[in-house]
Specification:
The complex is a heterodimer of chains A (about 400) and B (about 525). Chain A is α+β, with helices and mostly antiparallel strands and about 400 residues long. Chain A is built from 15 helices and six strands. Chain A folds into two domains: about 10-40 and about 205-395, Multidrug efflux transporter AcrB transmembrane domain (Multidrug efflux transporter AcrB transmembrane fold); about 45-200, no CATH class. In chain B, helix 1 (about 5-25) runs antiparallel to helix 13 (about 480-515) and helix 10 (about 350-405) packs across helix 11. Chain B starts with a helix and ends in a 12-residue tail after the last helix. Classes of the chains: A alpha+beta (about 400), B alpha+beta (about 525). Chains A and B meet through helix 4, helix 5, helix 6, strand 6 and helix 9 of A and helix 6, helix 9, strand 17, helix 10 and helix 11 of B.
């Protein structure tokens, strides 16, 4: 199958529309930030996140009254009965997520002072309980310890698969549990109101450090890539490449603004991937431009040359972009809650990266060229020939195709 | 077939074998690529060791040493008071010259610089001594935490100092932990056990307890609280005790501790002492028969039994413990006390069920995405598409194999790295194939088109890869945990992609289209 063979689309005709479109998108996204502010996740702002799964319907009101000042939102689908409790940034260091969990446990599981909570405790505590009640008459040998530990592990494994026990029958039917052991559990243990899916605390100190590090990682990586391109190609392309990255990052940021997305460490990874993908796309086109400039024997207009290059690489641009987009769409559809926002951001970034290569980069290079042409008062065509010369001297060893 | 094709094929087969061995799980090592805590569940903690605790304790002990030496030299005992986090002041009773105490300080407290202000002496812990003490405190805290985690039976824990050799932070990673609340409690409990004599009487009122102590010795006691219990060990309220400041026997003198059953069947903790600790304990109990001795854990009085007899080397701590608490307490007592308290700076815990969901979902999504890519590439490039997929699979194999060899952790950002890598690996093939198509359209023979397709695309691929590798190196250098994971997968994957797209794909093309006996006239691309 061949598509985009010998195409002759006039990409450069659309360059001003493209720039206008990008600007509008970025401005709308920026306006959303003015409205909503920057939604820093706990990684950067500090604070705490606790995700709980409940046995019965989520007791939203009780949660609100127990933890004043926290944001409480549904996590995943309603039938999953899970909530995300977010504690805002704290001034002092401390185990905030742990405190939330402890408080809720006291309030919602009053029985936990005398009985073991099968939805809260781990296998060690359960093994201890089984060992001390010894339903299967194993004594107190090391073998007995191992026996009860394995039983406890089966029960907890079951819970991990289910998410939470909603019925004692789910516990007592765990593999390997004898009738006697199954009888002991309901007497000494109960099913608590919730199970902890995850809990995170980031203190103010660590939050600040993560912010600084993420910032420098992105800035330095971008500059290094720009520098490489400036050396390998020429200054014009280096600057255009960095501007192109800035464009893609801004589009990504605007998207985050539109959905009021939360900035976390994983968001930084997403932006890094966007940058990596975009630079890859841009370099492919530049390489072809360089090759075409070298081969260009006729006095070809630079605009025509750019257009010709973009058309030559179009098939590849679309196919590669398409493959990445396919993977990302399946991540969005099947990848689950944890990765969802991340995958969306990657998708928008990949599309922006492809789009910027086709429309934005040429626009920047053209503007640059026109500037130089105006300043020197020469014809545009001559500029192209002058452009060609330094590239050839810069890379004398390269074979002509 | 050309001769030099043989060694190329041998090389490729060797690579396949080596990396397949690397990723196939074995019985001894079922998880070849370690999964990050975000994927498999577990607890990641960053704790700060409050080294100032240890320094304060040292200041208090130095004050006691000064008093003890003064008494030994028949001088009146000075009043000692901590005035900052690295100094204390000692004031002799009125009329006694300070010079005598300065002499004691010179001999017995050489790690302090002493200055005189009016009638009192200021003892300042010397800088290097203080920082060495802080350093040792962190090292000792790490050792204690390692002991405790070992007893928890966590597999492959990571406990490391953060921020260089002088850093005061500890990173603790415990994969697969299913009860983070308890584990955190066990790690954070300082477990400072003390045996201190009780003065005056005990009672539910703090002021009453202090007043029951003779006025002269009120400066020598601390008021501590504990649970008041009934005969069945049930908590009925609070109880205060006046305990002596001097601590003759501590948790350091313990040899072992284990859970036992008390008279009413309630859990208690039986302990035994080291030879030296036993001597001290024996002397203490023999001299104080009939008096109550408080067993203090982390500044809370657990119980204050009356000494009936001189006890040499073993004893019992009773208190209002649940079986689980008694078990955890004996664990922390066995593994030693922390020399300073810990502050949580960061915690990330992913429960086992969320981790399971994450793995299942990201695996499904990746497989579906990958299948879609395979279908579209084969549709688009037919025969050559199969070649590209072979190269892509090999790339994935090398990437995973390298991660297994280096024990590089796979995290969610790492998956992003893999996606980018696979995207770029496909891109290398696509670049080559597009060139071959162009050359074919320009009328070149199959062989010539393949040759120039590969050589024309090579420069481009080197440029794209180098650019990204430079960025990845920066990320590796400056990034934190998750960003580093992303960079690692990217670096390995990119290196592999040059190999697979240019070496492996080319060999496959040559095998099919470059046979000496039957030169190809058409190419499936």
């Amino acid at each position: 199958m061949e598509i985009f063979t010998n195409t002759n689309y006039d990409f450069l005709k659309w360059r001003f529309h493209a720039i206008a479109f990008s600007l509008v998108f970025i401005l709308i996204g920026g306006a959303m930030y003015l409205k909503n502010g920057l939604n820093l996740g706990i990684d950067f702002a500090g604070g705490a996140n606790v995700i709980l799964k409940f046995k019965e319907a989520v007791p939203i009101d009780q949660l609100r009254s127990q933890i004043p000042g926290a944001t409480i939102q549904q996590y995943g689908k309603p039938e999953e009965r899970s909530v995300l409790i977010r504690l805002p940034k704290q001034k002092q260091e401390g185990d905030y997520a742990g405190q939330v969990v402890e408080k809720l446990n006291k309030a919602m599981n009053p029985a936990s002072s005398s009985q073991l909570d099968l939805n809260f405790q781990g296998r060690a505590a359960l093994a201890e309980l089984l060992k001390s009640t010894d339903p299967d008459k194993k004594g107190s040998s090391t073998a007995a310890h191992q026996y009860y530990y394995d039983l406890a592990q089966n029960v907890i494994e079951r819970r991990s698969e289910l998410g939470i026990f909603t019925d004692m029958a789910q516990v007592t039917s765990a593999p390997g549990l004898s009738k006697e052991a199954a009888a002991v559990l309901p007497q000494n243990a109960f099913l608590g109101a919730f199970n902890i899916l995850s809990q995170e605390t980031v203190g103010p100190q660590v939050g600040r450090e993560l912010q600084t590090k993420a910032f420098w990682a992105i800035i330095l990586a971008t500059l290094a890539m720009g520098l490489y391109i400036a050396i390998r190609f020429d200054l014009k392309f280096g600057v255009a490449a960095v501007l192109c990255l800035v464009h893609d990052v801004l589009i990504g940021l605007a998207f985050m603004g539109l959905i009021n997305g939360e900035f976390e460490i994983i968001t930084v990874a997403a932006f890094l991937m966007i940058i990596g993908y975009s630079i890859n796309d841009t370099v492919v086109v530049y390489d072809r431009v360089r090759e075409n400039v070298k081969k260009s024997r006729t006095r070809e207009n630079f605009e025509t040359l750019m257009n010709r290059t973009l058309n030559q690489t179009l098939s590849r641009t679309v196919l590669t972009g398409g493959c990445v987009v396919l993977i990302l769409i399946s991540l969005i559809l099947f990848g689950g809650e944890v990765i969802n926002q991340f995958a969306w951001l990657l998708l928008i970034g990949t599309l922006a990266g492809t789009y910027s290569t086709l429309f934005v980069v040429p626009a920047i290079v053209m503007v640059w060229n026109e500037r130089i042409a105006n300043r020197s008062g020469a014809k545009r065509a001559e500029v192209v020939r002058r452009e060609a010369a330094p590239i050839e001297t810069a890379t004398p060893g390269r074979a002509k195709g | 077939m050309k001769k030099n094709l043989w060694w190329k094929i041998a090389l490729i087969l060797a690579v396949i074998v080596i990396f397949t061995i690397a990723v196939i799980p074995t019985k001894a090592n079922p998880e070849r690529i370690p999964l990050g805590l975000d994927l498999k569940g577990g607890t990641h903690l960053v704790m700060q060791v409050n080294t100032v605790d240890a320094i304060r304790a040292e200041l208090d002990q130095a004050g006691e040493r000064l008093k003890a030496q003064a008494t030994a030299q028949t001088l009146p005992s000075p009043t000692v008071r901590r005035i900052s986090d690295d100094s204390f002041a000692a004031t002799p009773p009125a009329g006694v010259p300070t010079a005598q105490y300065e002499k004691i300080a010179e001999e017995w407290l050489s790690e302090y610089s002493v200055s005189r202000t009016g009638e009192s002496l200021t003892f300042k812990l010397k800088g290097p001594v203080a920082s060495e003490l802080a350093n040792q405190t962190v090292a000792q805290a790490i050792e204690t935490i390692i002991n405790r985690v070992d007893q928890l039976g966590v597999t492959e824990p990571i406990i490391a100092r953060q921020g260089g050799v002088r850093g005061d932070r500890i990173v603790i990673q415990l994969p697969g932990v299913d009860d983070p609340v308890r584990v955190k409690e066990i790690i954070k409990t300082t477990a400072q056990l003390q045996f201190r004599l009780v003065e005056g009487s005990m009672g539910p009122d703090e002021a009453f307890v202090l007043n029951s102590v003779p006025a002269a010795s009120r400066g020598e006691v601390d008021i501590l609280s504990g649970d008041a219990q009934d005969a069945f060990g049930r908590v009925t309220g609070r109880q205060f005790y006046a305990v002596r400041k001097s601590v003759p026997v501590t948790g350091r003198d313990l040899k072992s501790a284990r859970v036992e059953k008390g008279e009413m069947g309630q859990p208690t903790i039986g302990f035994s002492l080291t030879a030296e600790g036993g001597k001290k304990f024996g002397a203490l109990t023999a001299a104080n028969i009939g008096r109550p001795l408080a067993i203090v854990l982390d500044n809370k009085v657990q119980s204050a039994p009356t000494i009936n007899d001189a006890i040499q080397d073993r004893g019992t701590i009773s208190g209002s413990f649940s079986p689980q608490e008694a078990n955890d307490l004996s664990l922390v007592l066995r593994s030693g006390s922390l020399p300073a308290s810990l502050t949580t700076l960061e915690e990330r815990t992913v429960g086992p069920s969320l981790g399971k969901d994450s793995i299942r979902e990201s695996l499904t999504a990746s497989l579906i995405g990958f299948a879609l890519v395979i279908v579209s590439v084969i549709l688009y490039y037919r025969g050559a598409g199969v070649n590209a997929i072979v190269a892509l699979l090999l790339n994935l194999l090398i990437l995973l194999g390298m991660m297994a060899y280096f024990r590089a952790t796979l995290t969610v950002p790492g998956i992003a790295g893999i996606i980018l890598t696979l995207g770029m690996a496909i891109d290398s093939n696509v670049l080559v194939f597009e060139r071959i198509r162009e050359e074919r359209r320009a009328g070149k023979s199959v062989r010539a088109a393949i040759d120039s397709g590969f050589s024309l695309a090579f420069g481009t691929v080197i440029d794209t890869h180098l650019t990204t590798i430079i960025a990845a190196l920066f990320l590796f250098q400056f990034g934190t945990g998750p960003v580093k994971g992303f960079a690692v997968t990217l670096l390995i994957g990119l290196a592999a992609s040059v190999f697979t797209a240019f070496f492996v794909s080319r060999v496959i093309f040559e095998l099919i289209y470059n046979r000496a006996d039957r030169p190809a006239t058409s190419i499936s691309i």
